[in-house]
Amino acid sequence: MGELAADKHVKFILSVEKRKDDFESVAMEHLRMNGAYWGLTTLDLLGKLDSVDLHEVVSWIMSCQHESGGFGGNVGHDPHILYTLSAVQVLALFDKLDVLDVDKVTNYIVSLQNEDGSFSGDIWGEIDTRFSYIAVCCLSLLHRLDKIDVEKAVHYIVSCKNMDGGFGCTPGGESHSGQIFCCVGALAIMGSLHHIDKDLLGWWLCERQVKAGGLNGRPEKLPDVCYSWWVLSSLIMIDRVHWINKEKVVKFILDCQDTENGGISDRPDDAVDVYHTYFGVAGLSLLEYPGLKPIDPAYALPVDVVNKIFIGK
Question: How far apart are CA 195 and CA 18, in angstroms?
């Protein structure tokens, strides 16, 4: 089994930020806030967060905030709940949540809860259980979870549960590993995991492991490094992670590294990107790979960051 090329991955992440004009950078411009979260959290897990300029990052993040309280994916882009969570998570990494007008951000998120307990992503009204997770996670990190109707939020997520134990993006939607993480994570944060059939869901999730060792998002799909996070975190939250072969997942992730230039891809020999680099390293952290900081499976932030927010340590 190979080793994690940690130093190369740090260099890769730092180089991505400097490239402003290549195709990948231009194509990613609208979700730069998410990219900042993926890259900076990876650096923190690798113990290298101090290699970026804290004040520069915080200043850029705050320049993406709108009068509504929500954040855009980049300067001048419309606010969305997706980017609002990433902004809060990055500020949490740097222990800089105090720069926020918490009430303003809270009011923005609260305004997106619908009568049935679901959440819209922005003023245009798309509904998805991803947005339920984001709202719950974000408000919890800000100590404002009591500002939404938690009971209705739980009820809506439970209404998206399927006969196979999994969850979809709306009621009746197909079970998918990414949506399952969102629903399990939100229920975990709201203290409502008792609504899950852990054995049934655990069985569906452990069946996502293919012969190559990697994990997929739903039946008959190819494995993808990002599901190392979505599947493993869910299995950990429902206490069924021992049902998969951890060594094989580790090998699959390590096989997806570019050991020369850094970065991790979705599958071996594909092009690397920040998204899969983060989820690969985060997956290895969940599997307690040596040299990585532990990550919280519900909040998707390093455990020490979460502890500082909730217990002040």
Answer: 45
DSSP 127-163: B-HHHHHHHHHHHHHTT-GGGS-HHHHHHHHHHTB-T
Whether residue 1 is contained in a domain is answered as no
CATH of the domain at 138: 1.50.10.20
Residue 48 is assigned to a structural domain of this protein: yes
On whether residue 85 sits in a domain, the answer given is: yes
- Residue reference for tokens 């492991």: 209
Phi, psi of 130 (to 5 degrees): -55, -40
Look at residues 187, 192, 109, 99 and name the one whose alpha carbon lies nearest to residue 144: 109
Query: pLDDT tens for residues 33-88?
Result: 999 999 999 999 999 999 999 999 999 999 999 999 999 999 999 999 999 999 99
Give domain status of residue 222, yes or no: yes
Count of domains in the chain? 1
Q: Is residue 19 pLDDT above 90, yes or no?
A: no
Q: Is 27 exposed, middle or buried (0-12, 13-18, 19+ CB in 10 A)?
A: exposed
Contact 225, 270 (CB under 8 A): no
Nearest partner of 300 among 178, 173, 145, judged by Cα: 178
Segment 260-296, tens digit of pLDDT: 999 999 999 999 999 999 999 999 999 999 999 999 9
- Measured at the CA of 128, the angle between CA 126 and CA 131, to 5 degrees, comes to 95
CB 284 within 8 A of CB 246: no
Give the domain range for residue 252: 6-311
CB 240 within 8 A of CB 205: yes
- How many other C-beta atoms lie within 10 A of the C-beta of residue 5? 19
